User: Which sequence fits this backbone?
């Protein structure tokens, strides 16, 4: 690889990097995707697999809806089945304050064209009899979906490779330097790679590149604790989430229940460790039993986590560098990157090749961290 040249180098082989490589290669670009481990090994491959539209940050809706259209065409676009299923998503409220918040989410979703169904207590129990008696209201979005995160990023990477993308796994970037109008990457083995455009999609490690070019963001690495139970007869169709964030779960066709635990746990990005403390498992199962009492006695058979990058305002960084032409950032997805991943990759490819994208991305600019940082209330509740 020494002395090689490519049009675009992408550092970070998660879902964002893989989708960006795919869309650039579809338009004839020579692309090299560099990943320090294997593609999809961190947050892209260990998340809950939720493709939820309702309840998002309002400024994210144009991107989110564009991305959902790509997900709905995934099999044709990528050529593999990654268990995409339009299951719908059920949001539950347990008191009037939560009900009011649920209604606020619904109105925002509807303002962007998403169909939201309000469900009262009687209809809740009639349609989903496995629910407990305590929920006072719910909203349901039939367009929300799920996919298998362990399958998706490798599949997108394979599709990109078929288009000519050079994928370099187990390859660390030791240095990145400006070289004329482009960049030179020095790899850990001493090899070099020159490129005209550089995409920084390195997740919790993205600051190593951003700060090299005078930009920063208050990234916090954390792990999303995930759990899977023994299999049961298939009964639970939608993804189910308590609006207070205490639990979100879904049943896969094989019968197992997958659930995500809250709060999240601090991770060690340098040691590459994201623990799942045993108390997390107990808390998750207690929250699950509150929502679906029939699952109170089920057994957890496996737990896992990975390393995600969080920002205090719970909004990712997406877009061009404000100091260095040719550098683009996409990191800090705060546990919400799986759904918007295809859209982010498409938008980045448009910005790189066309100079702009029709999807508004202004809220995601890295420059917002030059002034006082807004801390989201959700961020305060997200961690131990």
Assistant:
């Amino acid at each position: 690889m020494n002395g090689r040249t490519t049009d675009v180098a992408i550092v970070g082989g998660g879902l964002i990097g893989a989708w960006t490589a795919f869309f650039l290669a579809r338009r004839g670009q020579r692309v090299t995707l560099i990943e320090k481990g294997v593609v999809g090994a961190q947050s892209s491959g260990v998340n809950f697999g939720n493709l939820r539209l309702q309840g998002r940050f309002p400024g994210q809706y144009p991107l989110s809806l564009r991305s959902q259209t790509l997900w709905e065409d995934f099999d044709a676009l990528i050529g593999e089945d990654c268990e995409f299923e339009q299951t719908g998503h059920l949001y539950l409220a347990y008191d009037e304050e939560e009900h009011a918040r649920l209604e606020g989410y619904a109105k925002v979703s509807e303002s962007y064209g998403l169909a939201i169904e309000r469900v009262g207590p009687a209809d809740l129990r009639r349609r989903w009899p496995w629910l407990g008696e305590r929920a006072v209201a719910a909203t349901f979005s039939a367009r929300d979906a799920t996919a298998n995160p362990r399958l998706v990023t490798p599949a997108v990477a394979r599709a990109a490779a078929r288009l000519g993308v050079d994928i370099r796994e187990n390859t660390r970037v030791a240095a990145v330097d400006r070289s004329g109008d482009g960049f030179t990457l020095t790899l850990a083995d001493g090899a070099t790679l020159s490129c005209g455009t550089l995409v920084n999609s390195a997740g919790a490690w993205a600051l190593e590149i951003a700060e090299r070019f005078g930009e920063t963001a208050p990234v916090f690495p954390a792990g999303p604790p995930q759990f899977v139970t023994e299999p049961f007869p298939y009964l639970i169709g939608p993804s189910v989430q308590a609006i207070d964030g205490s639990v979100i779960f879904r049943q896969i066709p094989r019968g197992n229940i997958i659930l995500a635990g809250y709060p999240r746990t601090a991770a060690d990005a340098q040691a590459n460790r994201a623990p799942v403390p045993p108390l997390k498992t107990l808390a998750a199962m207690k929250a699950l039993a509150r929502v679906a009492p029939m699952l109170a006695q089920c057994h957890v058979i496996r737990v896992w986590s990975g390393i995600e990058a969080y920002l205090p305002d719970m909004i990712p960084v997406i877009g061009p560098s404000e100091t260095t032409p040719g550098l683009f950032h996409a990191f800090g997805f705060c546990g919400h990157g799986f759904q918007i991943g295809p859209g982010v990759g498409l938008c980045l490819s448009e910005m790189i090749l066309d100079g702009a994208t029709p999807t508004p991305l202004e809220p995601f600019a890295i420059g917002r961290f030059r002034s006082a940082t807004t801390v989201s209330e959700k961020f305060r509740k997200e961690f131990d």
Remarks:
- The mean pLDDT is 94.
- The domain at 89-142+225-305 is CATH 3.30.9.10 (D-Amino Acid Oxidase; Chain A, domain 2).
- The longest strand covers residues 192-200.
- Residues 239 and 250 are 5 Å apart (CA to CA).
